[in-house]
Amino acid sequence: MQEDQAVQALAALAQAVRLRLFRALVVAGPEGMTPTVMVEQLGVAASTLSFHLKELSHAGLVTQERQGRHLIYRAAFTTMNELLDYLTKNCCEGSVCVLTDAAAVRRC
């Protein structure tokens, strides 16, 4: 991931509704969610949701797929992982980080 991509992704997440929305999509996993479910779950207006989904999509953090009459939104896990890797690349002052436990958390 390039610096400009990281900045764009972080800027997209630097807003409370978008951060909650992205986290909800991460929890939903590969099945994703429809806008109707997101509106109900997050308690935001449909027009507000649409605006925030567009911002997350432009940052590459969310994908969209049409299934019949429905749109399914999913977290872009590859982009999310690239952002996390970018942020933690030199987390151990240049030494090799050790991945621990099942969640593969970086530990210095």
From TrEMBL:
HTH arsR-type domain location: 1-95
Pfam families, per the entry: HTH_20 (PF12840)
Keywords: DNA-binding, Transcription, Transcription regulation
Keyword Ubl conjugation on entry: no
GO terms for MF: DNA binding; DNA-binding transcription factor activity
SMART domains in the record: HTH_ARSR
InterPro entries: ArsR-like_HTH (IPR011991), HTH_ArsR_DNA-bd_dom (IPR001845), Metal_resp_trans_reg (IPR051011), WH-like_DNA-bd_sf (IPR036388), WH_DNA-bd_sf (IPR036390)
Name the UniProt record assigns to this protein: Transcriptional regulator
Source species of the chain: Comamonas serinivorans
